[in-house]
Amino acid sequence: MKRKLTFQQYIAVASMLFGLFFGAGNLIFPVSMGQMAGRRVWPAFFGFLITGVGLPLLGVAALGMSRCNGLAEMSQRIGKKYGTFFTCALYLTIGPFFAIPRCATVPFAVGIEPILGKGSSDALPLAVFSLLFFLAVLWFSLRPGKILTWIGKVLNPIFLAALGLLVITALLRPMGDIGSIAPQAGYASHAFSQGFLEGYNTMDALAGLAFGIIVVNVIKSLGVENSGDVAKCTVKAGLFSTILMAVIYLLVTIIGTQSRGMYEASSNGGEALLLIASHYYGRAGAFILAFTVTFACLKTSIGLITSCSETFCAMFPRTLNYKKWAVLFCALSLLIANLGLNSIIAYSLPVLMFLYPLAITLIFLSLAGKFFADDKKVYISVTACTIFAAALDFLNALPKGIKNLLHLKPLLAGVSRYLPLFEQGMGWVCPALLGLAIGICLHARKKQSLPS
What we know:
Layout: H1 7-21, H2 24-37, H3 41-66, H4 71-75, H5 80-97, H6 99-116, H7 123-141, H8 147-172, H9 191-198, H10 204-221, H11 227-259, H12 269-281, H13 283-315, H14 322-337, H15 341-367, H16 376-396, H17 400-405, H18 409-418, H19 429-449
């Protein structure tokens, strides 16, 4: 029985995992944060590092160390119905509702649309591009056994080479000095919390819980069978991939900040990337960026379709088979992608503000489960307190027009006065800690009531 992977196999698995993680949001949000943060970029980057790198690693580790057969089994420690709800909500969010459509609209918006020039705002070019994009995604996704080869050994190296060309040029010829660039918006006063919340947009903590089972299955296919050895290999592969993510995040954030030395902050990270690429390479920069972003988003979409299809196939075995789920999710993603990037981003943020606290608490409870014997009371107590606060964060993150329509202003103003960190988008922290304290007390009481 094989007990560990070779170094080359670790690199291949880590490359695959990095390729699954690093998609549309991983490029556009760090560069946008860099532009907005200015000289306050370091505390902002540290906050981003926690949610954009640390939590994804812990999510992969939690799934590997819990020895659960996927997120559904792990979340069912809270309750079977809750496990089904949370798993479906998470996979649909990082799948066909938000993340996968975003993977098609980002390369079009930052790479293809500028090449087409005026008139590209018509719906037809996006429809044609997204159709071709999802046909390619479907072709790769219908061959899930080849995911290590396609993503880890082919698509990911191509993407890294293209991105490296742009980043190295920008670092060798910086546009400005970071220390002289003034921060904008909330970064002037709350740089850390702004960066922390910016990491939500990558959706990587949610993806870590989703992709963990793919890594586990690949490691098993390479001959590692013992569950303890699989867990160790999963954590090591996750560590390698997230270190690479952290390095790229740092470099992309820096070139975003430096670009403010010559240009105003762009309206989004996609425009910022196009601005930087065009500054160094002229019209060729658009082609380089289109190539880089398309490969980044293609490989992530393949992983998401594969992961979502396998999960729904396992959860609902009497409905559709894997291929039919893959076709359905690709078709749904295609339809939503044609709503446009701005609409997708606007409506994904409230959902992320709701799901992220639940994902974070589940990750930490799973990692610390041995200290309270995975007592269900602790899981339920923490989740019950967190979900209430997360629902308030969801309401607070809704678009302004919807909040006005629902007359939420008086409610949110009252919550802001009494709930710590609510204005910073982290109102769930104190309720989660309260739930943990209650759960630990219930667990201790349960232990005392047991016979010696």
